[in-house]
Design brief:
Blueprint: H1 2-26, H2 31-51, H3 60-71, H4 73-76, H5 85-104, H6 110-125, H7 134-149, H8 168-179, H9 182-196, H10 201-209, H11 211-218, H12 228-242, H13 244-257, H14 263-275, H15 277-280, H16 286-299, H17 306-321, H18 328-338, H19 348-363, H20 369-372, H21 376-387, H22 393-409, H23 412-415, H24 419-431, H25 437-440, H26 443-464, H27 466-470, H28 472-485, H29 493-510, H30 516-531, H31 536-569, H32 575-591, H33 593-599, H34 601-612, H35 618-634, H36 636-643, E1 645-646, E2 649-650, H37 653-670, H38 677-693, H39 698-701, H40 704-721, H41 736-740, H42 750-753, H43 761-771, H44 780-794, H45 796-803, H46 808-817
Antiparallel strand pairs: 1-2
Helix pairs in contact: 1-2, 1-3, 2-5, 5-7, 6-7, 6-8, 7-12, 9-12, 9-13, 10-11, 11-19, 12-13, 13-14, 14-17, 16-17, 16-18, 17-19, 19-22, 21-22, 22-26, 24-26, 24-28, 26-29, 28-29, 29-31, 30-31, 31-32, 32-33, 32-35, 34-35, 34-36, 35-36, 35-37, 35-38, 37-38, 38-40, 38-44, 40-46, 44-45
């Protein structure tokens, strides 16, 4: 409907616009009103061109509109000459109309490509900092950049242009290709560097007065920005990729030709090389260039002259751009050049730029922590010295990111001697560093810094291991941080909660002994899960870690809370959460076979209720079946307890019998769905146990032939596992057994999986839980034999009658195996 109305709307709006433009030209007393009206109409026309008009191609109103813009450059195209806000308003609106029309109708706009490319490219090459309108020029630059990057205008791969069918798209592409000739590109690139890439006097003043603001603006090119220079840099990179060989040589030649006295122009050339680093890699040997051109600037004393500071900062920045091209031996030299620049007497822009370059080096795949070891102490010192000099959240976050990356890539023995100092420095930042006036206005900013502190602390404990949690300063910091970060009210918000929970889990993993401080934290987890299940997976991992590390002491103190948590989860989360909860419960059942079977009986009863009501998916149901089978095998009394409870109430004998039958049938139906043999063995053993105790029930006994099928299937798979050349079934990604440290075969020892590194203390604990698993250590064939004998001894006639209906093949295989 909007598209159908577009021509009529334009036919009404365009004459009004033309009339007011004419009034603006005459400059009469109604000039302000005409300007205001023209602006409003142009906003409407812009929306129609971008969102309603099917195409600008051949459209009379579009032609009149764009032609008039081109005819009146002093009104609509005055970016280079600048002017007052009123004078520039129409130029900005005209540029936005052109941008959106080209973006929406790339082929239909082709008749206007040439004139607008000429106009806006010319305006860029006439840009005069301090005089020209940066916003209007930025919009013109957006148009040129969009045209260069537009995929519609690109020649098909493998085409030389002569064999391409002429279409509107190829016609438009030919216009673009003809305009961006080699000479045009050379001229445009030179002017971009000389006019837009050069730091202005106002920027140098910002460097002096607001160094962190200057850094923030410099980094604008790394994210979407409406400022001229970042847009011009994007245009430059696109042109560079279009004519790589020619323009790389042009930029390098321009750099070499700059006299020593023109340091700001050389800085602009260096900026161009850094922004286009990918295109320069085949031509520029960075290692040689660094040692010949950049290193002398890094080694030069800190200059009071601003241009000397610019040269040093740019040399540092270039290292961060060319990280992947720096060989290992040169990296060591660079470390020695950069780390001293972090010191407390340097220029703040240079120091922060150095942090960015070092972060890029440390995070590179080829980084070697041993090479950096001699510089570790000075780096940590420099980070914390610099943290006291920064005022903005972004700067401190950058420092903490560097520290976190460095810790992650360093060896524990390098970090260990400095644990106490790092913890004390982080405590200072946590308590007072985030309360600087410039950081305290925004609670979100404070919590962003706190999240970075928590992430660094987590990485320290993760890398150093148990020795970290023995350090009194680390301990003194960690528990209050976790407590504050996991408060449901008055804490640090969502992101801090996530980071604090990660720290909590890592701390638990590294504890050698359960401590009261850790016990006192557990109610916070209960509070978080009462609020929501947003961090359910890590919360479940924390519960498991508490049980593994705290053992019986934890269960005595917090057993009721554990029951409440799993009751709240069951039936109220999606499949992934339900499966994760089942896996956590499985570890608890392995740790405390009888205690947890009885403690969580209400949870298991609820699982049966949900499955009988068909409210759970097959994936969730088979995991619930596995838990119930384990309860049957480990503590039959607990199983009877959950069967005799229905929806929280005592079940009648009829209901209890119905629930028992359901469990038996569900175990039979889903046994084959389980991966690995352990869960299938549990199902088979549970069926034997249930059938042996309920063999007088004629309906139950009718399930015996299907149960025999299950037993034979599991016995056959166990026999196959004994064959050395057969592939073993693999656990699904993220499954509990993988979490414990096992994979493939249930019996595979963890040490075979982690032969390249020593298992952590926590992994060793999990391995022992697996090795000591009561149910896993039962002899399946023996359990089947004794279970079937018990069924037959208790009800010989019924047993023989039902078995007679079973498949002779199944009976023969069963006889052979047990």
């Amino acid at each position: 409907m909007y598209e159908a109305m577009a021509p009529e709307l334009l036919s009404c709006l365009l004459p009004i616009w033309e009339m007011n433009v004419a009034n603006i030209l005459t400059g009469g007393s109604n000039w302000p009103r005409s300007l205001h009206t023209a602006k409003l109409v142009m906003k409407s026309i812009r929306q129609i061109l971008a969102h309603a008009l099917p195409s600008v191609e051949g459209d009379e109103f579009a032609r009149r509109y764009f032609t008039r813009i081109l005819e009146l450059p002093d009104i609509f195209l005055r970016g280079a000459q600048g002017g007052s806000d009123e004078e520039m308003a129409l130029s900005k609106l005209a540029a936005k109309s052109v941008i959106e029309a080209q973006n929406r109708h790339p082929t239909g706009f082709r008749e206007y490509l040439q004139p607008f490319l000429e106009v806006y490219s010319s305006l860029l090459m006439k840009y005069d900092p301090g005089r020209s309108s940066e916003k209007a020029e930025a919009l013109g630059c957006v148009f040129v950049k969009n045209v260069v990057q537009c995929p519609t205008y690109r020649r098909p791969i493998g085409s030389n242009g002569d064999d391409t069918e002429v279409t509107p798209a190829t016609a438009a592409g030919s216009i673009v290709e003809a305009f961006f000739s080699t000479q045009t590109c050379v001229n445009l690139v030179k002017e971009l560097i000389a006019r837009i890439f050069v730091l202005t006097e106002s920027e140098l003043q910002s460097w002096e007065n607001d160094p962190e603001g200057f850094i923030r603006d410099e980094e604008a090119a790394d994210w979407n920005s409406d400022k001229l220079r970042p847009i011009a840099e994007a245009l430059y990179v696109s042109l560079l990729s279009r004519h790589r060989d020619l323009l790389v040589g042009t930029v390098l030649g321009l750099t070499e030709s700059v006299p020593d006295s023109e340091l700001l122009l050389r800085d602009a050339c260096y900026r161009a090389i850094g922004r286009g680093c990918y295109e320069f890699t085949t031509t520029l040997n960075f290692a040689v260039w660094f040692q010949g051109q950049l290193e002398p600037q890094l080694k030069a004393p800190i200059s009071e002259d601003m241009r000397g500071k610019v040269a040093k900062a740019r040399a540092t920045w270039l290292i961060g751009q060319f990280v992947s091209q720096i060989p290992r031996d040169v990296r060591v030299i660079i470390y020695g050049d950069l780390v001293p620049l972090l010191g407390d007497r340097g220029d703040l822009v240079i120091r922060l730029t150095t942090v960015g370059a070092l972060t890029a080096l440390v995070e590179d795949l080829d980084f070697d922590g041993n090479d950096y070891a001699p510089f570790f102490v000075d780096s940590i010192s420099g980070i914390f010295q610099l943290s006291s000099a920064t005022e903005e959240t972004e700067s401190l976050s950058l420092l903490l990111q560097f520290a976190t990356s460095l810790i992650e890539k360093s060896e524990p023995e390098i970090i260990r001697p400095h644990l106490g100092r790092m913890a004390r420095e982080l405590m200072t930042l946590w308590d007072s560093g985030v309360t600087k006036q410039s950081r305290s206005d925004d609670l979100g900013s404070k919590n962003l810094i706190r999240s970075s502190i928590v992430a660094l602390l987590t990485k320290v404990i993760e890398v150093v291991g148990p020795d970290a949690v023995k350090d009194p300063d680390i301990v003194k910091l960690s528990y209050p941080v976790i407590y504050f970060g996991t408060l449901t009210e008055g804490g640090g918000g969502v992101y801090l909660t996530e980071d604090a929970m990660d720290l909590w889990l890592v701390l638990l993993h590294e504890l050698e002994e359960y401590v009261e401080d850790m016990s006192r934290l557990f109610p916070n987890l209960v509070g978080l899960l009462r609020r929501d299940f947003d961090n359910l997976k890590v919360a479940l991992d924390i519960i498991v870690a508490y049980a593994v590390v705290g053992g019986a002491a934890f269960m005595r103190t917090h057993g009721q809370s554990v029951l409440d948590i799993f009751l709240a989860i069951t039936g109220n989360v999606r499949d992934r959460g339900a499966v994760a909860a089942s896996e956590a419960i499985e570890v608890l059942l392995q740790l405390f076979p009888q205690e947890v079977s009885k403690l969580l009986a209400p949870v298991f009863s609820t699982m049966v209720d949900l499955m009988m009501a068909n409210k759970e998916s097959t994936l969730v149901s088979k995991n619930h079946d596995n838990l119930i089978a384990r309860v049957v095998v480990q503590d039959y009394d607990a199983f009877e307890m959950l069967i005799k409870t229905h929806q929280g109430q005592d079940a009648s004998p009829e209901v209890a019998r119905e629930r028992m039958l359901f469990v038996v049938r569900d175990l039979i139906d889903k046994t084959d769905m389980h991966w690995g043999t352990l869960r299938k063995r549990l199902s088979g053993m549970a069926l034997c146990a249930i059938m042996a105790r309920n063999n007088a029930d004629e309906v139950m006994l009718l399930e015996l032939p299907m149960m025999l099928n299950v037993l034979v299937q599991v016995l056959a798979e166990l026999d196959e596992e004994k064959e050395p050349d057969l592939p073993q079934e693999t656990a699904p990604a993220g499954h509990l057994v993988t979490f414990i440290g096992l994979n493939d075969n249930d019996e595979q020892p963890l040490k075979e999986m982690h032969s390249a590194r020593k298992p952590t203390l926590y992994q060793q604990r999990l391995q022992r839980i697996h090795d000591d698993d009561f149910a896993a250590n039962l002899n399946f064939a023996e359990v089947c034999r004794s279970g079937l004998n018990e069924i037959r001894n208790r009800n010989p006639a019924g047993f023989d009658a039902v078995v007679a209906t079973a498949s002779p093949s199944i009976l023969r295989q069963l006889q052979e195996r047990i």
